[in-house]
DNA sequence: GTCATGACGGATC
DNA sequence: GGATCCGCCATGA
């Protein structure tokens, strides 16, 4: 299990309507400072991965290098129920992912 | 094993 | 408050 694989696992467990930051996923992988590694991992991520739910600490979406445009990403998130601020950023304050154990009850 | 790079993040200017 | 710089760490050549 490589670091990237752990990142994939966490992202795949990300529920709709929830958002996570690169640094958060990195921390959950045991490397709080490896936020950039998470980004690099998502760059090589498979299609089934909801990597559009992973954004910056600031709540801003990633560059237009993903999903064909950050606007597309925002629309997908809005479709999942993620509130966006008039500032053009996601409302991380209310929809940030709490962790892999959130909603993960006795699934083992 | 070493050098360079990358979808970041925090600190500084 | 925004732009820029440096630091961090895994991955690939």
TrEMBL record:
Pfam families: DNA_binding_1
Molecular functions per Gene Ontology: methylated-DNA-[protein]-cysteine S-methyltransferase activity
Keyword match DNA damage: yes
Coiled coil: none
Residues in Methylated-DNA-[protein]-cysteine S-methyltransferase DNA binding domain copies: 3-82
Segment forming the signal sequence: none
Keyword Methyltransferase: yes
Lineage top rank: taxon: Bacteria
Biological processes annotated in GO: DNA repair; methylation
Gene3D superfamilies for this protein: Winged helix-like DNA-binding domain superfamily/Winged helix DNA-binding domain
Keywords noted in UniProt: DNA damage, DNA repair, Methyltransferase, Transferase
InterPro entries found in the cross-reference section: ATL_DNA_repair, MethylDNA_cys_MeTrfase_AS, MethylDNA_cys_MeTrfase_DNA-bd, MethylDNA_cys_MeTrfase_DNAb, WH-like_DNA-bd_sf
Annotated catalysed reactions: a 4-O-methyl-thymidine in DNA + L-cysteinyl-[protein] = a thymidine in DNA + S-methyl-L-cysteinyl-[protein]; a 6-O-methyl-2'-deoxyguanosine in DNA + L-cysteinyl-[protein] = S-methyl-L-cysteinyl-[protein] + a 2'-deoxyguanosine in DNA
Listed name of the protein: MGMT family protein
Organism: Acutalibacter muris
């Amino acid at each position: 299990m490589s670091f990237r694989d752990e990142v994939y696992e966490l992202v795949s467990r990300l529920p709709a309507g929830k958002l996570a930051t690169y640094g958060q996923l990195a921390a959950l992988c045991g490397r709080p400072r490896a936020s950039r590694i998470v980004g690099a991992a998502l760059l090589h991520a498979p299609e089934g991965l909801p990597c559009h739910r992973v954004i910056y600490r600031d709540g801003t979406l990633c560059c237009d290098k993903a999903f064909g445009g950050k606007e597309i990403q925002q629309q997908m998130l809005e479709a999942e129920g993620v509130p966006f601020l008039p500032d053009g950023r996601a409302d991380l304050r209310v929809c940030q992912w709490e962790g892999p154990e959130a909603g993960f009850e006795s699934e083992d």
